[in-house]
Amino acid sequence: MLEPKADGADLRARRLRKSEAMRRMVRETRLHEDMLVAPVFVVEGNHVKEEIDGMPGVSRYSIDELPKHLEGLTGVGVRSVIFFGVPGSKDDVGTGAYSRDGVVPRTIEAVRPSFPELVLMADVCLCEYTSHGHCGVLSGNIVDNDRTLPLLARAAVEYARAGADVVAPSAMMDGQVSAIRKALAGSGMDETVVMGYSAKHASAFYKPFRSAAGSAPSFGDRRSYQMEPGNRREAMREIRQDIEEGADIVMVKPALAYLDVISEARRKFDVPLAAYNVSGEYSMLKAASMNGWLDEKQAVQEVLTGIRRAGADLIITYFAEQAAGWIREGW
Ligand code: PBG
User: Fold this and answer.
1) How confident is the model over 202-252, as pLDDT tens digits?
2) Mean pLDDT in the chain?
């Protein structure tokens, strides 16, 4: 028998766990579909909807197939998407990223009029568009920071001109936020939101994304520009720098192995904080769920709640549509 303490206090935490209503009443962290952002891969061509290797339930769509997919998302209450372009052809300077008739500008132009309320974000990077798969242009075997900046800035301006609400530089080039801010201002588009992939770590968990986008580097890896997984102080420095350069939203990526980074960023900074629950994190849960090793709905709820509890304001996740549906059913 649990004895009361000497002063008579009978400390029983289980009182508040007695019923579903009681547990919900004292629940500290809730998920809402408003905070979910759905990644969307767009390919060239027509009538394309092809499932991504390693990501069951996630497909790449051609522009003509997008309205149906976006209606599915908005139908369950998702209010924001982030586009990734998969071009028909690539070259060594990533031209497809910043040409006016590139896949992302055309996507945004096509979607904007029929989804006026949807927050349209566009990832800004060269890796999907370069033949070598690196996030910037090369000088020899080096990813050249300062020659890449104007190209990222051009891409951001094209996406904003096409109607993007948010441009999100993910190349991890130093000064990318400020280059983009200046270029947007110079083109009269200073109302465009910049979401910096501020603390983006060199992660094994991007692998399924790279097969989706065909963006795996053809030599070497991304460790000369993406962050060392062990570095939390550096993550704070990267975030601070992005805020100083004019980022409206900052990001920690990936999410699950970096919850402490999210948590510290939440305490240190007051701008909205995004967490990217990346492709490999989706694949892990999907694979285990499909094998019957995990209950998918419960596992996804727990993972997204954890990211939220750590301090993320918005969560970019391939589970957005499913999770929004479950939230509607009263998770
Ligand atoms: C582009 C980019 C990547 C991701 C988002 N933007 C790939 C990479 O850095 O290799 C990964 C997202 C995911 O894994 O879901 N640089």
Assistant:
1) 999 999 999 899 899 999 999 999 999 999 999 999 999 999 999 999 999
2) 97
> Is residue 12, in this structure, part of any structural domain at all?
no
Angle at 314 between CA 24 and CA 275, to 5 degrees: 110
Helices H / strands E in the chain, number of each: 12, 12
Q: Would you give the distance in Å from CA 253 to the centre of its chain?
A: 8
SS3 track for 191-221: CCEEEEEEEEECCHHHHHHHHHHCCCCCCCC
Question: Model confidence over 260-292: pLDDT tens digits?
Answer: 999 999 999 999 999 999 999 999 999 999 999
Q: From 280, 268, 270, select the one nearest 202 (Cα to Cα).
A: 280
Q: Give the CATH number, domain containing residue 81.
A: 3.20.20.70
- Rounded to the nearest angstrom, the distance between the alpha carbon of 18 and the centre of ligand 1 is 43
CB of 81 closer than 8 Å to CB of 38: yes
- Identify whether 284 is part of a domain: no
Q: What is the pTM of this model?
A: 0.97
Q: Which residue minimizes the CA distance to atom 2 of ligand 1? A: 170
The count of domains in the chain is 1
The distance from CA 53 to its chain's CA centroid, rounded to whole angstroms, is: 19
Domain that holds residue 186: 30-251
Residues with CB under 6 A from ligand 1: 123, 125, 127, 135, 170, 206, 209-210, 215, 278-279
Contact by Cβ (8 Å): 118, 70: yes
- Measure the CA–CA gap between 271 and 80, rounded to whole angstroms: 18
- Strands 138-139 and 55-62 turn out to be unpaired
> Residue 101 domain-assigned?
yes
Known catalytic residue at 68: no
What is the rounded distance in angstroms from the CA atom of residue 252 to the CA atom of residue 9?
A: 43
Q: Which of 198, 126, 106, 116 is nearest to 165 (CA)?
A: 116
Residue 308 lies in a domain: no
